[in-house]
UniProtKB/TrEMBL annotation:
This is Amidase. It comes from Lutimaribacter saemankumensis. InterPro entries: Amidase, Amidase_CS, Amidase_dom, AS_sf. It comes from the Bacteria. GO terms for molecular function: catalytic activity. Belongs to the amidase family. Residues 26-444 form the Amidase domain. PANTHER family: GLUTAMYL-TRNA(GLN) AMIDOTRANSFERASE SUBUNIT A, MITOCHONDRIAL, TRANSAMIDASE. NCBIfam families: PRK07487.1 (NF005687).
């Protein structure tokens, strides 16, 4: 094998494999060798799928040589987060409580990726119950940020972010209800896309019915080193599936929109690190140079209220059961989160749920109207540079500050908006990035703008250990 698979985009790698200029067996073996060399240092992949991947690669190789159909992700190595059903593996969600919850079938988007010949090399870590922007648990251990072990790799898809940054697969699956794709991408110096709600079908037979918050706000989506890899992953993962009645058959591209962007440097006046403000200014200049009109609007719809409503919906929906599960698991991060909101949860009255959902709709309307004027919004991913590892366990003041810094992480899902986290570079071992927000179902606009920024900031390079 003369070409280094990591030097190729996922699309180019699949094309090489389909044409026979690269062998899926060789690519898979090289990727698994890289996993063996680097993963012990960071613990991003916590369930091994290497034997299955090699078996699938050999079958794909035979099919290619026989002139059979080849999928869009032919031989592309991918990872799946342990929150998602994958046949033959435990859907642990980072807990000991679910250590033996083995799936009998794939979640719909996993089946779609397999049908397009993606090769699943492993399953990635998440904090217990996927509650934190930090990734450690008693079941699988702690995931380290390959860019800087003193920083969080993010969460809850911290394993996905770390695996992507280390080149352990071209595409990583993550989930996002309060930043769990966008923040690990930001913290690990890669790219991450939160799709529109209903874009990617994702249903766990092991999980039973979905609560209200996940129905309204939770999504599955991709992380990668390249924006086009996100686009290709979205093409494959998306679509309507009967197994997920909340999935919809919406086209991946929409009508032309004006190349007009809003620069929102401090949403709701939030505190933002100077380096992030500089990243946003540079991103705005890149868009202008590419022919976009970029403005700083005099007024922007609120995010803080959306953040608080997102938290309220989580607290109203089975909080006692969440607290009991956290106690049973004994995870420090989950218990700290439960403790922070316990008093607030105890005050809710039954009629507040309806009021919260009504107010949510009003806020969604405000943002949809704003996005009709500005199809792209540039804003921070977080108000702070990546947090120190386990900083949320250092006391109430730190936890409160972290939640304040994550305003856009928490608020945008309530508004049912997609978001793209674009890496703006790594300085002295500290990644940073900016966020692109678009109207629902217009990930194509986010990816188009994201490629402009990727060209300006530079494509992230994989950590070499």
């Amino acid at each position: 094998m003369t070409l280094d698979p990591l030097s190729l985009s996922a699309r180019n790698l699949a094309n090489h494999i389909a044409r026979g200029t690269l062998s899926p067996v060789d690519v898979t073996r090289a990727t698994l060798d890289r996993v063996a060399a680097l993963n012990p240092q960071i613990n991003a992949i916590v369930q091994d799928c290497g034997d299955e991947a090699m078996e699938a690669a050999e079958a794909l190789d035979k099919r290619i040589k026989a002139g059979g159909r080849v999928g869009k992700l032919a031989g592309v190595p991918v990872t799946i987060k342990v929150i998602t059903d994958q046949a033959g593996h435990a859907t642990t969600n980072g807990t000991k409580l679910a250590a033996d919850l083995v799936a009998d079938e794939d979640s719909p988007f996993v089946a779609r990726m397999r049908a397009e010949d993606a090769l699943i090399i492993g399953r990635t870590n998440t904090p217990a119950f996927s509650y934190r922007w930090f990734t450690s648990n008693a079941q699988h251990g702690t995931t380290l940020n390959p860019r800087n072990a003193d920083l969080t790799p993010g969460g809850s898809s911290g394993g996905a972010g770390a695996a992507t940054a280390a080149g352990l697969g071209h595409i990583a699956h993550g989930t996002d209800i309060a930043g769990s794709i966008r923040y690990p991408a930001y913290a690990c110096g890669v790219q991450g896309l939160r799709p529109s709600v209903g874009r990617v079908p994702s249903y766990n037979m092991t999980g039973g019915a979905r609560p209200i918050g996940p129905q309204l706000m939770a999504v599955s989506g991709p992380l990668a080193l390249r924006v086009d890899d996100l686009r290709l992953a979205l093409e494959v993962m998306s679509g309507e599936e009967p197994g997920d009645p909340l999935s919809y058959p919406v086209l991946l591209t929409g009508p032309d929109l004006p190349r007009r962007a809003a620069l929102v440097r401090r949403p709701d006046g939030m505190a933002v690190d100077p380096r992030i403000l500089d990243d946003l200014d540079r991103a705005a200049a890149m868009l202008r140079a590419a022919g976009w009109e970029v403005e700083e609007p005099a007024s922007v719809p609120p995010l803080t209220e959306a953040k608080e409503l997102q938290i309220d919906l989580w607290l109203m929906d089975g909080f006692a059961e969440k607290a009991a599960a956290a106690e049973a698991e004994g995870d420090p991060g989950a218990l700290a989160l439960i403790g922070r909101f316990a008093a607030r949860a105890a005050e809710f009255q039954p009629n507040q749920l309806s009021a919260a959902l009504q107010r949510r709709l009003a806020l969604m309307r405000e943002w949809r109207m704003f996005l009709s004027d500005y199809p792209v919004v540039l804003m921070p991913v977080s108000g702070e540079l990546p947090f120190k590892a386990d900083e949320d366990l250092t006391g109430a003041d730190a936890l409160n500050r972290i939640w304040d810094a994550q305003l856009s992480q928490i608020a945008l899902p309530l508004l049912a908006l997609p978001g793209l986290s674009v890496c703006s570079g790594i300085i002295d071992g500290v990644p940073s990035g900016v966020q692109i927000v678009t109207p629902p179902w217009r990930e194509d606009i986010a990816l188009m703008a994201g490629e402009v920024l990727e060209q300006g900031f530079g494509t992230p390079q994989p950590w070499q250990g």
